Amino acid sequence: MNQIAENLAAIDDRLSHRHIELDPGGYFIIYLDRDAGLICAKHFTNAIDDRGLATDPETGKVIPAKGKVERSPTTLFTGRTAKELCVQIFEETQPCLVTMFDHAAYLGREFMRAQIALTNSQEYVQD
């Protein structure tokens, strides 16, 4: 990796560890379906408690940030490109499931990362 790429990777790594507020509109789990050539995004609802933690709206239990969680998505979005997914989520779904600008920007970045990984046969792990 060249010096410029290393510097950019370090900036992104540092920014990935900052505190972010959770979107009361829910969250997305993004993954690739390589066989179908698709970027997939499962949407899950959540509620935000007084501590700022995401909770399951049905049970009130905190949703862990890491590890497996047995919940059913409210919607599955699929697209061949990042743009196709963004149009589905931000333009065609009403009301919009994303209620915060920083969440929308994050999703756009992640969808582009997923598209690049799909195109270049690279591993994709959601940030």
Question: What does this entry look like structurally?
Answer:
- The protein is α+β, with helices and mostly antiparallel strands and 127 residues long.
- The chain has one domain.
- Helices cover 34% and strands 18% of the residues.
- It is built from three helices and five strands; from the N terminus they run αβββββαα.
- The strands form two sheets. Strands 1-2-5 form a three-stranded antiparallel β-sheet, covered by helices on one side. It has a two-stranded antiparallel sheet with strand order 3-4.
- β3 (47-48) and β4 form a beta hairpin.
- It is globular and about 45 Å long.
Throw out a few tags for this protein.
127 residues, alpha+beta, 3-stranded antiparallel sheet, two-stranded antiparallel sheet, 34% helix, globular
Topology summary:
Elements: H1 3-15, E1 27-33, E2 38-44, E3 47-48, E4 54-55, E5 75-79, H2 82-92, H3 101-119
Antiparallel strand pairs: 1-2, 2-5, 3-4
Helix pairs in contact: 2-3
